[in-house]
What we know:
Mean pLDDT: 85
CATH architecture of the largest domain: 3-Layer(aba) Sandwich
Number of strands: 15
CATH class of the largest domain: Alpha Beta
Shape: elongated
Strand content: 15-25%
Order of helices and strands: EEHEEEEHEEHHEHEEHEHEHEEH
CATH topology of the largest domain: Rossmann fold
Number of domains: 2
Number of helices: 9
Radius of gyration: 23 Å
Amino acid sequence: MTDNCAAATVEGSHTVPAEAILGELPVIEPDTSSNDAAPEDATPSSDWTLESIRDKSPGKNERMTLVTLPFAAGNLQDVSAELEFARFNGADDGVPPADTEFWVPPYGFGLDFARILGQLPKLRAIQTQSAGVDHIVEFVDPSITLCNARGVHDAATSELGVALILASLRQIPRFVRAQDRGVWDQEQRLPSLADRHVLIVGYGSIGQALERRLDGFECEITRVARTARDNIHGFGELAGLIPDADVIVLLTPLTPETHRLADAEFLARMKDGALLVNLGRGPLVDTDALVAETSTGRISAALDVTDPEPLAEGHPLWAVANVLITPHVGGGTTAMKPRIQSLLTEQLQSFVKGEDLKNVMPR
Length: 363
């Protein structure tokens, strides 16, 4: 750190020195122990909080590039002195500063992107914290580079995939309910993941991570992606693959092509006793058709995402005994924070240098 570089984070009456923002001194952050999954800090006292890194040498940094993050810039390493940061976590219907050129929206799907993006005339790039961009893409002008967080959620989501498969096949929810009643509900003939045929529909980075974690469980894997390639089937072959699968895992992006991919016809093709796991987006599945099929007990399901979402109290899906539901927690673990920070550091280095960004979404 040179003597010419100074910085301050203004939040209320507190000032944090430049060294803290740059990560050379400890950064004091709010207690997030109750939600390690969320990298966003506590709500600032205004729409956004300015965090500047300025070289005060004569003639230096006359024009800074403004980056708006949902967390403190001190969480990033190797920050360029050409960048200025604002912190905006989406609270209270606020907007990021109008000079924002690179924006990282908060992790979640509740922002009014049409309203916000209409007030960011200088915006050049958006880096989401999610692998899917279906919640934002329609509002982003084609002149703005939109990047997803491919790779950030591979570990966490594939972990949950294995957990949901095992919990469903080995009927863990049943035993938890029996424990709550104090009942010794012993069953010796439960299905095993070993020798099962798992069909992964959507073989991107998360699908590949899931296969790596399933390796060792002695199950057969069949892969499906939008485009066929070596050892990977295309979507056009999916109908013929469904009847042979014991477990079908949905990991495709939500697009017009994949909307209600698992419809009544898809579900009817599944073999008796098969398990459907949805780790992608809720609308990949026709919920009414799923309720009808699972209510008979013919097939089962494990869902981290639903349609609608959140699932309302009293929705019939809650009452189906052989459906396991987790509330869209696939990516939100302690694994997320270091991975999104690593991706952002790399992206900002490329952005400052005028180099191509990673994970650019085609439009």
